[in-house]
Design goal:
Helix content: 40-55%
Oligomer: single chain
Largest sheet: 4 strands, antiparallel
Radius of gyration: 24 Å
Strand order of the largest sheet: 4-5-7-6
CATH architecture of the largest domain: 2-Layer Sandwich
CATH superfamily of the largest domain: Trafficking protein particle complex subunit 3
Strand content: 15-25%
Mean pLDDT: 89
Number of strands: 7
Length: 210
């Protein structure tokens, strides 16, 4: 029987249980597939970046490679980030109030931006905005630059995906994180022109440099 997606997941499940790793023979015994089928799965999973080989382990015969999950492989399994994030934000709101929570999220965005400032050094304002779009796309925002209006000189930024969609729906203070992040990167005041949570087809930002 040819290997299937389900049997490939069985291999991943075994490696999740064996965080120190497993050899080919150990995986064959655990999932009940042929060596050829398991080896095909390992080759595919390694090519996709979900597993990697480590130092060979001595067995009864020849030493065998030990396979372990990578971080990407571990992230294939369900995580309850949304539930935890909502609990965290709700607790902060109860303790701080909405206004202070907004300020906190803004300051958090500014603080996070500091580590990315080196990517903008030596660039013009327009080039910095283009690089900010790259940064946002790396985080999953599906961002792009939008041509400036007639009276403006610099492009705007538009995002088609809100990476905090479920969170910002109930806690709009979270949007202040993006404002602080963009402001920290550019040193400009940020005008939030449109927001998906307010019914727009995307989030749009304008940079107001001093």
């Amino acid at each position: 029987m040819p290997p299937t997606v389900n049997s490939r997941q069985d291999v991943l499940n075994q490696l999740l249980e064996r965080r120190a790793g497993a050899t080919l023979d150990e995986l064959v015994a655990a999932v009940g597939l042929s060596r050829t089928a398991v080896n095909q799965h390992l080759t595919t999973l390694e090519g996709e970046g979900y597993i990697r080989k480590t130092t060979p382990r001595k067995t009864g015969g020849r030493p065998q490679h030990v396979y372990v999950l990578t971080e990407d492989g571990a992230n294939r399994f369900p995580k309850q980030y949304s539930w935890f994030s909502k609990l965290l934000i709700q607790t902060l709101r109860e303790q701080m109030g909405e206004e202070r929570l907004s300020e906190y999220m803004y300051d958090l965005g500014v603080k996070l931006s500091a580590r990315l400032i080196p990517r903008l050094v030596g660039k013009t304002r327009a080039e910095r905005i283009a690089e900010i779009v790259n940064v946002m796309n790396e985080a999953g925002f599906v961002a792009r630059t939008v041509p400036p209006e007639e009276s403006e000189k610099l492009p705007r930024v538009e995002c088609k995906n809100c990476v905090y969609h479920d969170l910002s729906k109930d806690y709009p203070e979270v949007c202040r994180f993006d404002i602080g992040f963009l402001s920290g990167l550019t040193g400009a005041e940020i005008e939030h022109l449109a927001c998906m949570q307010r019914g727009a087809d995307g989030c749009r930002f304008r940079f107001l440099f001093p």
